[in-house]
Amino acid sequence: MIELIPLLLFACVFLVLLSGYPVAISLAGTALLFAAAGIITGTFDASDLGFMPNRLFGIIGNQTLIAVPLFVFMGVMLEKTDIARQLLADMSSVLRGVRGGLGLTVIIVGMLLAASTGIVGATVVTMGLMSLPSMLEDRYDPALATGTISATGTLGQIIPPSIALVLLGDVLSNAYQQAQLSQGVFSPKTVSVGDLFAGAIVPGFVLVGLYVIYLLSVARLQPERVGGNTPKPAAKTSALSLMRTLLAPLALITAVLGSILGGLATPTEAAGVGAAGAVLLAIAGGKLSVQVLREAAQATVKTTAMVFFILIGASVFSLVFRGFGGEELIHEMFAALPGGMWGALLIVMLVIFLLGFVLDFIEITFVVVPIVGPVLLAMGADPVWLGVLIAVNLQTSFLTPPFGFSLFYLRGVTPASVSTGQMYRGVVPFVVLQLLLLIGLCIWPQLATWLPEMLKG
């Protein structure tokens, strides 16, 4: 029974989270209660808690995690500049002569917005407010309209620079070094957030391509779902106006990603460039004011505080979980599974997918990945490939009915005339496309590993 205490700890934390208590307090509080009971019964070594101060100091002093508030600030400032709104208007005018053109515009603008903000909730709500009324007015099938917006909003999980990839990259970096040290490698290789950014680019664009193919197929085979058989004539929007609107977000994305992939800057330094660039765009657009700056700063502080508070709680949980022998238990369980690494990977992906219904990506990244990551990496999984698989898996779970977070975000800004059932039906094809990408990554790991290896080589 003592060997099963780690699993009991995990189950209790999960139940406490479902009861509605704050995540950080649930993680740390439950773990400390188990540790206290373990100390009393002699099943937990109290000296293990002595590692906590160094862990907390390491979290606060982590250079990589400084990128989180900077990327959040960049995303919030871009929302205030109305660049996405202008881009949506210009591109929809140009593509209005293409059957399904408004849907294509939503996918393209959503991709750029995801690459600019990296925050799923913000992208879904912004696109819902801006584009859903226009799509419904153009007689788009409500299921197709809401499905397209929900799926496009989740691209912020996989397309860099993504907050999810920053956090996942930091956790996997620690897990990779831990896995190597457990195998007797005392000069461990490292995997960086930049490597994960590079690994996610090709899968991200493949997914966007699948979305576009699906929408064009619907427009071709079921034209009534995209507003009828006859495309509307394109509005007169000059190419110069469109290029001027496109130039700002593309320049910012190129500056941030290009500096990281080119080895000119770390993700933290590039995030600083992005934050400064977003402020300059706000100034150029005449949108910067004391009020806007105050709102952006407040949103950044709230999000950053939440992330670090959860990370501290997760660190306490992880320490107690390991103190009860949880890591050895997970390793033994995975080793006993048929199929070796692939069998263990299948179980982990299924667990992460199911947890994605009820937990945010931050909790999953900080709680689950540190537990299973070192074991899977020690069994031979490539760290970049594993990170991209987890990111795509989380993206899929956030979209899957009935508990997908993306659906909850969109429901909040969707008119009552669109039923929840229509929203659920609309996202099903996009969930299938994301599962196809997951299968493709398993068959061809090079989709995630090729670009990082090329940049290093």
Explain how this protein is built.
This protein is mainly alpha-helical and 457 residues long. It has one domain (2-456). It has helices spanning 5-18, 23-41, 52-60, 67-80, 83-94, 101-117, 120-137, 142-153, 163-182, 193-221, 239-261, 267-284, 290-323, 326-336, 340-355, 361-367, 369-378, 383-397, 405-411, 420-443, 446-456. The longest helix has 34 residues, at 290-323.
Distance between the termini: 50 Å
Domains (count): 1
Task: Tell me the β content.
Answer: under 5%
Q: What does the radius of gyration come to?
A: 23 Å
**Any low-confidence stretches, pLDDT <50, length ≥5?**
none
What general outline do the C-alpha atoms trace?
A: globular
Order of helix and strand elements from N to C terminus: HHHHHHHHHHHHHHHHHHHHH
Backbone structural class:
mainly alpha
Nearest-integer average pLDDT: 82
Helix content: over 70%
Work out the number of β strands.
0
Largest sheet: none
Helical stretch tally: 21
